[in-house]
Automatic annotation (TrEMBL):
This is Glucosidase II subunit alpha. It comes from Suhomyces tanzawaensis NRRL Y-17324. One of its GO terms (cellular component) is endoplasmic reticulum lumen. It comes from the Eukaryota. Residues 97-317 form the Glycoside hydrolase family 31 N-terminal domain.
């Protein structure tokens, strides 16, 4: 949530407000650096240009053969050695490297032996090496035995399934091969560049090659960054990667851009730098709120991914034009190690699974968090909150969570309430709990000075510090603030205490368990800071510059919040799973938080771009993603709002949100027919929750996206690789099943064009209805044109799918828990279908003790069966009250459907139904 502002000095409370409100404008390019304005990117792009233009370029780097050997860590196999960088004066810089192997994955790390460093002693003199500590799981699946050959000028390794890697000493080149064919070539264009330590007084001629530039090495000329002391001078790292035979690249969120990454030759590169970018532009490579430096290259028989393990400001150039059959990327980070993973597999699903084994998969979220969330800046008081709560019931619209933005807190002092507006939080939470509803409220990392919390942070020395190593004071919503340093291990216990499960904790409603957290502004956003963020020479725990840790800071903050919430009922085996929403994130954030796309606008282009943004997040390992339904800024037309709800029900995270100056727009405000259409869309979301929850279970175990791009299921169809306005929900990527959705995102649309990516039968499933059986089939992939009214959500059910639904209206997910299931079976062209259903209590961590069930369904035209394939006997017994109340069977051969009412089937038993013929039937029992 945000309004734009400029740097405001001479702050008083009234001047803060006046200053902020005086600059309510869209994002301006001058607020944030371009590559040309960022010294390290400017220098490395210049270097790349010079190297490419010089056919006789002599690389500065080589691996010293005598240094190469096997690592001594008994926990993993590795090759170690030293890369030497030759300087113009013939001196050399030592760059120690390590190459290790995980399952189907190679990790390369390059450091620098820094000598004679003279910087203020408040800083660590090492290159930042702890990004992986935050991004990775604690125990990595390193391989201990790898077939290796060390030769005079080369090292060769064999690993995984038909994979190998070849390391050439000069020029330095690393080639990853699959079945002997190159897949990824590291340093293919010799763009390796490690800006080594030098002092301001050193002669540049002794340190710069003819291809290098000295632009902004020891100063920052950008207008808001001129006070940056740059204590280490130039220390960027750059490297190029060629993807052989690949022309489609995905990932590197967050950008308001297409799913298939664009060529950036001659234009702006993609930037990864977490910033508070209000009213961001669409079709843009500008930095946004989150960063996942994960890039996936896909072709029919192979998928390769690069994970760049660096949390500093990063720019990425994509080149798809130089070689028609290959793509390349050039990565440039301001400082830190050269540290990256290359993952190779047959499919995107395999690569996502391997990536998840390293960084973790998404949390299995509590069921309520997959329901509908109602939010705005702000609901005014307890009466307002409970009135909104009652109106949902009055209009028979299900919802699960109401949200409070910053105005709930006394003078925006987090961990307090405005007592006159919210006199009894526990009572309010109890009232919401009567119908299974939850409250989410906001706590940001900036803490107002002058009250107990900020005083505690300062006295306990757990703040972000300035370059003198004193608590940094900046400005944000409360005015003058300090920032919690969540990278400091001592901050966790203090953070835990603020969320403690205790009848005395007024802030958390005593021992209320229907309260969850929203971490906003954690890029971090600093109103008077450079690029609206923290000064880069600020200091974190361990003496690390903020410059080095910027992109991972948001993760450390929301992870601290998640950990604190998880400890609230630590002795209770039925304790609630926490829910945390974060705006800033990094690789690994998926383990503890959901994300949303930030401060969008109430315009059609923002509705349209939300789909590729959420898809990109999913293929990059963070599937619990969504966008503000209706747009945060502005006032959507009734048509736009309706279409956004019809799209938003498919976001894994489904929340409506609005700016403080936007008119109220809860679903009933628009009136008829819009209210009924929005109600129907929300009810459709709730009926599909068993499908969505099952998809989240699969994502939490094997890393697949919840909302899948078309190409993910159809790798042999190259025409599907750039489609990002339709997607799959449910079903299986392996089997190519599920619901194919094409939301309407154009104003005044009366028809849509839907791409059917194969020759499989598809059943019309518009609005989740099957009143008539309409079938689409052809001998090959094809487009269909479908007429739509404002009521319509274009949906196709892929042949071969079985969906488990809950169709009864309930006010919240908690009240649906014991409702019966309905099955929808869509037979494929071979007369077969299959599907699965994951069940647990939807609330606690008991699933980790095997208290869950995984039910498999199969069907032919004359036999339907169900059986539990994974479940503990004790938990299976607890499901005896869950029944299947209806089965709808769609038969492709005849175009008929069979509807079986009240088949008297228990979800926890093995069962079969035999059907005598394929005539359309509808009766109570078979």
């Amino acid at each position: 949530m945000h309004i734009h502002r400029t740097n405001c000095v001479g702050w008083t409370n009234w001047w803060v407000l006046l200053c902020l409100l005086s600059f309510v404008t869209a994002v301006k390019d001058h607020t944030f650096k371009t590559c040309d304005q960022a010294g390290f990117c400017h220098r490395n792009r210049h270097f790349a240009s010079q190297v490419r233009q010089n056919a006789n370029y002599i690389p500065q780097y080589h691996i010293e053969g005598s240094s190469v050997g096997l690592g001594t860590d008994p926990g993993k196999f590795s090759v170690i050695g030293t890369i030497l960088k030759k300087l113009p004066n013939d001196a050399t810089v030592e760059l120690p490297f390590e190459i290790s192997v995980l399952d189907n994955t190679v990790r390369v790390t390059v450091d620098e032996n820094r000598k004679g460093i003279n910087v203020p002693n408040v800083y660590s003199t090492k290159r930042y090496s702890e990004t992986s500590k935050w991004a990775f799981l604690a125990d990595l699946p390193y391989q201990k035995d790898v077939k290796n050959t060390i030769e005079k000028n080369r090292v060769s390794l064999e690993y995984g399934q038909d994979l190998s890697v070849q390391i050439d000493f000069y020029p330095v080149k690393i080639t990853v091969l699959k079945k002997g064919e190159p897949v990824v070539v590291v340093n293919d264009q010799n763009l390796l560049n490690v800006e080594h330590w030098r002092s301001r007084s050193d002669d540049s001629e002794n340190h710069l090659s003819p291809e290098e530039s000295d632009y902004d090495m020891f100063e920052d000329s950008f207008h808001s960054s001129k006070e940056d002391s740059l204590p280490f001078g130039p220390e960027a790292v750059g490297l190029d990667f060629a993807f052989k035979g690949f022309t489609h690249l995905y990932g590197i969120p967050e950008h308001a851009d297409s799913l298939d990454l664009k060529d950036t030759t001659g234009s702006l590169p993609y930037r990864l730098f977490n910033v508070d970018i209000f009213e961001y532009e669409t079709d843009s490579r500008m930095s946004m709120y989150g960063t996942i430096p994960f890039l996936m290259a896909v072709k029919p028989d192979t998928t390769a991914a690069l994970f760049w393990i660096n949390s500093a400001d990063t720019f990425i150039d994509i080149d798809k034009n130089s070689n028609i059959e290959d793509s390349s990327s050039h990565w440039i980070s301001e400082n830190g190690l050269l540290d990256f993973l290359i993952i190779v597999g047959d499919t995107p699903a395999q690569v996502n699974e391997k990536y998840g084994s390293i960084t973790g998969n998404t949390q299995l979220p509590p069921m309520f968090s997959l329901g509908y969330h109602q939010c705005r800046w702000n609901y005014n008081d307890e009466t307002d909150v409970l009135d909104i709560n009652a109106k949902f019931d009055e209009h028979q619209i299900p919802y699960d969570t109401i949200w409070l933005d910053i105005e709930y807190a006394d003078q925006k002092k987090y961990f307090t309430w405005q007592n006159e507006k919210f006199p009894d939080p526990k009572r309010m939470l109890s009232e919401l709990d009567h119908t299974g509803r939850n409250l989410v409220f906001i706590v940001d990392p900036h803490i107002k000075t002058g009250y107990s919390v900020s005083k505690d942070l300062i006295s306990k020395k757990i703040t972000i510090n300035d370059k003198t190593n004193s608590s940094y004071h900046g400005h944000c919503w409360p005015g003058e603030s300090v920032w919690v340093d969540s990278m400091n291990p001592n901050s966790q216990s203090y953070w835990d205490s603020k969320f403690e499960w205790s009848p005395k904790n007024h802030f958390m409603g005593g021992e209320s368990d229907n309260i969850h957290l929203w971490n906003d502004m954690n890029e971090p956003s600093v109103f008077n800071g450079p690029e609206d963020s923290s000064p880069r020479d600020n200091i974190h725990y361990g003496g690390w510059e903020h410059r080095s840790v910027h992109n991972v800071y948001g993760l450390t903050f929301h992870e601290a919040t998640y950990n604190a919430l998880a400890k609230r009922q630590i002795g209770n085996t039925n304790r609630e799973r926490p829910f945390v929403l974060t705006r800033a994130y990094y690789a690994g954030s998926q383990r503890t938080a959901a994300m949303w796309t930030g401060d969008n606008m109430s315009k059609w282009e923002y509705l349209k771009i939300s789909i590729p943004m959420v898809l990109t997040s999913g293929v990059s390992g963070m599937p619990f993603a969504g966008a503000d339904v209706g747009g945060f800024f502005g006032n959507p037309s009734k048509e736009l709002l309706t279409r956004w709800y019809q799209t938003g029900i498919w976001y894994p995270f489904f929340r409506a949100h609005a700016h403080i100056d936007s008119r109220r727009r809860e679903p009933w405000v628009a009136g008829e027919p819009y209210t009924s259409i929005m109600r129907d869309a929300i009810k459709l979301r709730y009926s599909l929750l068993p499908v969505i929850y099952t998809s989240f279970y699969e994502s939490s175990t094997i890393g697949t996206p919840v909302m899948r791009p078309i190409f993910y299921d159809h790798l042999d169809n190259l025409d599907s690789y750039s489609i990002d306005d339709q997607f799959y929900i449910g079903g299986s990527a392996v089997e190519g099943s599920g619901i194919l959705v094409k939301p309407v995102t154009d104003e005044g649309a009366t028809e849509v064009s839907i791409y059917i990516p194969n020759d499989e039968v598809h059943y019309d499933y518009t609005n989740g209805q099957l009143d008539e059986v309409k079938i689409y089939r052809a001998k090959a992939a094809h487009y269909i044109t479908k007429a739509v009214s404002l009521n319509d959500i274009p949906m196709l059910l892929t042949g071969g799918s079985i969906l488990a639904l809950k169709n009864r209206y309930r006010r919240s997910t908690k009240l649906m828990k014991n409702d019966p299931y309905s099955l929808v079976i869509a037979l494929d062209s071979q007369g077969k279908a299959s599907g699965s259903l994951y069940i647990d209590d939807g609330e606690s961590f008991l699933y980790s003790n095997d208290e869950y069930a995984n039910v498999a369904f199969t069907s032919t035209s004359n036999l339907i069966s169900g059986t539990s394939v994974l479940a503990s006997a004790k938990y299976l017994d607890s499901l005896s009250g869950l029944e299947i109340e209806k089965i709808t069977l769609l038969i492709e051969v005849s175009g008929h459907k069979a509807v079986i009412h009240k088949p008297q089937l228990k979800i926890n038993t093995k069962w079969e139904i035999r059907i005598s013929d394929d005539r359309e039937i509808e009766h109570d029992e078979l």
